[in-house]
Amino acid sequence: MTAATYALLGVGAAVPEQVRGNDDPLFEPLRRAAGTGGEHALFYGNRERRVLAPGGSLSALTAKAGAAALTDAGLTVADVDRLYGYVSVSEFITPNELYAVHREMGLSQGTLVVPVQADFINFLMGVVLAWEALRAGSIQHALVAVGSAWTRNIDYTQGHAIGIGDGAGAVVVGAGDRLTLVDWAADTFSDEYGAMMMGARPESGLPHPTYGIAPTSGVKAFLNSGMNGPPRLVERLLAKHGVAREDVTLMSHQASRKLMDHWAQEIRPREYLDTFEDYGNMVHASMPVTLARFHRELRTKYLVMVGLGIGAHQMALLVRV
């Protein structure tokens, strides 16, 4: 008897209509800080980003991505057994706004909601958790949906602010024979706990929590595990399955060209697809949004998606095309 294979059955994405270019007055503090080094030297490469309008609903945007994924899979809300994912920054500290996505989509009362608080690999971890539930025989279909609107929670004097954009992406996971899930690998760097975090920063003068990178430990984490961890993780995963680099398309977390160019040089995939120039760093949503744009154009035998997150942790997912 042949074991069932599980796959990404449908992919969807949604981005806000508002476009913010690098010439926006909001970025004037960053232009003045150009050439000062430190964090400001680490983040560059996008031309614009999408921004959720004031009063705009991130849960509605995420639900739109989820609905698109279901349509792409040829399924309906009645087919969804579980909803994995995350919405950030959520309306409340708890519960996560993923419950509002469940409501917006009209999912059934029996559909379990599983918020995955694993910034920034919420999407990949959601796919892995859904896959494990499928293999256990607990469910038949899962929807993984993530939405990010960090443009509302950024200190625009900080270097990482230049890249941040908003967006949402989703996939349906179930039994299938295209974009099949092969394996995953992960590393944890708990010694970096606190080096990068979202929290209250009274010194910023802002009334809401903001993301921040510690001047010493945060920059060190970026330059060490951030630069070199993903290539090592991908190499380990490919070697385990005897997959050659020339048979791989790479998609990744897209925080900065500094990271992405280094990863491309070290991993050397046949193709490296991203949406960074147009959409910037959509934090949790970059990979599913990029996948939604390119999934019908993949030309290699395998796809690798690799991400990293604060905590710190990294995850790579190997998919057979």
From TrEMBL:
Record-linked Gene3D superfamilies = 3.40.47.10
Gene Ontology MF terms in the entry: 3-oxoacyl-[acyl-carrier-protein] synthase activity
Q: Which residues form a coiled coil?
A: none
Does Transferase count among this protein's keywords?
yes
GO biological process entries: fatty acid biosynthetic process; secondary metabolite biosynthetic process
Database matches in InterPro entries: ACP_syn_III_C, ACP_syn_III_N, Thiolase-like
Q: Which domain of life is it from?
A: Bacteria
Asked if the record carries the keyword Acyltransferase, the reply is yes
Please state every residue range assigned to the domain named Beta-ketoacyl-[acyl-carrier-protein] synthase III N-terminal.
123-177
Q: Which residues form the Beta-ketoacyl-[acyl-carrier-protein] synthase III C-terminal domain?
A: 238-320
Q: Which UniProt keywords apply?
A: Acyltransferase, Transferase
Read off the PANTHER family from this record: 3-OXOACYL-[ACYL-CARRIER-PROTEIN] SYNTHASE 3, ACYL-COA:ACYL-COA ALKYLTRANSFERASE
Q: What is this protein's name?
A: 3-oxoacyl-ACP synthase
